[in-house]
Amino acid sequence: CGASAPDHLHFQAGSAEFLPLTREYGGILAGSGAAVVDAPDVRVTAVSRGYLRSFIALESDRREGLERAFAGVLEVFASLQPGEEEPLVNILSLHAGGKWRVNVFPRAKHRPSMFFAEGDAKILLSPAAVDLGGVLITPLEHDFAKMSEALIREMFDEICLSAELFGRLVEGIETRLSGNPG
Question: Global pTM?
Answer without folding.
Answer: 0.90
